[in-house]
Amino acid sequence: MVRFENIAKTYPAYRGKPGVKALQNVDFAIPRGSITGVIGRSGAGKSSLVRLINGLEKPSAGRVIVDNRDISALTGRELRLAQRSIGMIFQHFNLLSSRTAADNIALPLEIAGWSKADIRARVTELLALVGIADKHDRYPSELSGGQKQRVGIARALATRPSVLLSDEATSALDPQTTRAILDLLANINRELGVTIVLITHEMSVVRQLAREVVVLDAGRVVESGHVADIFTHPKHPITQSFLSEVTGDSLPVSLASRIVQEPGRHAVIRVQVRGAGAGDTLVARLARELGLDVSLLSARIDEIGGQHVGALVLGIPGGDGAAARALAWLSQHQLSAERLGYVA
Ligand SMILES: Nc1ncnc2c1ncn2[C@@H]1O[C@H](COP(=O)(O)OP(=O)(O)OP(=O)(O)O)[C@@H](O)[C@H]1O
C-alpha cells in the first residue's frame, strides 16, 4: 500500500528562477494489489509524485508511506533496502547498451549481493515471465521497443518488489505494442499481486489497464476513485477534457466543416452518453416521442469499466422549436446535451 499524507513538494528558487509548488495538499491511498493510474497534463506533478514514492525526492511537508514504512524519513542503507521493494519502468527503457538482456536484468540482483547461481536461475525465470526467453544474449540494440520494455519490466521485478512504478512506460511504443505491454502488466498484477502505479498523460492507457484513477492538475488531486465512476461522471473540466480524447467528443472533420451558426435545415445536438446501456435506444425513443425524423450524424461509444461512455451527434429537423423540445426531452431524461449549430 502507498499512502500520501497531506504532501506538499516545493522546489526552491535558484539562480533567479522562482520556486515551484509542484504538489500541494496531496492526500490519497493506493490500495495494495491495485492498478492505479495517475493522469495529468505536462507539469501537473506526476514525476514529482513518483520520485516521492521511491524516495528519490523528499516531500516539503507530509509523509509518504510505502508498505507501512515512512519512506520519506529513510536515508542511506535503510532507504536503499526499501527501494528494492519498489520497481520502476521508464519511457525510454533505461537499459545499459553494453549489457545483454540477461545482464541488464541481473544488475539489481548483483547490487543486492545475490550469488551467481541464484542470479542465473532468477534471470531465466524473469525472461520467461515477460515472454522473451529467447533473447537472453541479445543486446538492447538488437531488440525492438516492446522487447526492450519487457527487459525493463523483468529488471524492475527482479528483487520481487511489492510496488511497480510505470512512468510513461508505453509512450514511446506503437499502439499494438502498447496493448501487448499493458496486457503483460495486467498479467503480472494478477499473478504476482504487485501494486502497479501508472503515470501517464494518455487516457487510453488508464482506460485499458487501471481500475483506480487519480487526476492531477497543477499539483493537486482534482478527482480520484474507480475508473468507471470517474469516467461516467467526470466532474472536473480537466477530467472531462481527458475523457473527450477517448470518447470522441471532437467531431469528424467532414461534419465539423458543415456546421454553421445561422439557422439551417437541421439543428445539430450533441448528447453525452454515460452509464450502462444509456445510448441503446435513445435515438429511437427521441424520434418516436417527439414525432421527429431524427438523424444520427456521428456516434462514438466506448466501454470503460463496464459502462458506456461516449457521445451521439443528432440532426433534428423542424426548426428551433423542435430543437428546443428535443433538448428539453433530453434534459428530462438526465442526459447532458448541447446545440452545436446547424447543417443545411
Ligand atoms: N528538480 C526540479 N527543480 C525545479 N522544478 C522542478 C523540478 N522537477 C520538477 N519541477 C517543476 O515542478 C512542476 C511539476 O513537474 P513534474 O515533472 O512533476 O510534472 P509532470 O506532470 O511529471 O510533467 P511531465 O509530464 O512534463 O513530465 C513543474 O512545474 C516542473 O517544472
From TrEMBL:
One of its GO terms (molecular function) is ATP binding. The keyword Transport applies. Keywords: Amino-acid transport, ATP-binding, Cell membrane, Membrane, Nucleotide-binding, Translocase, Transport. Pfam families: ABC_tran (PF00005), NIL (PF09383). It comes from the Bacteria. PANTHER family: AMINO ACID IMPORT ATP-BINDING PROTEIN (PTHR43166), METHIONINE IMPORT ATP-BINDING PROTEIN METN (PTHR43166:SF30). Involved in beta-(1-->2)glucan export. Transmembrane domains (TMD) form a pore in the inner membrane and the ATP-binding domain (NBD) is responsible for energy generation. This is Methionine ABC transporter ATP-binding protein. It comes from Bradyrhizobium guangdongense.
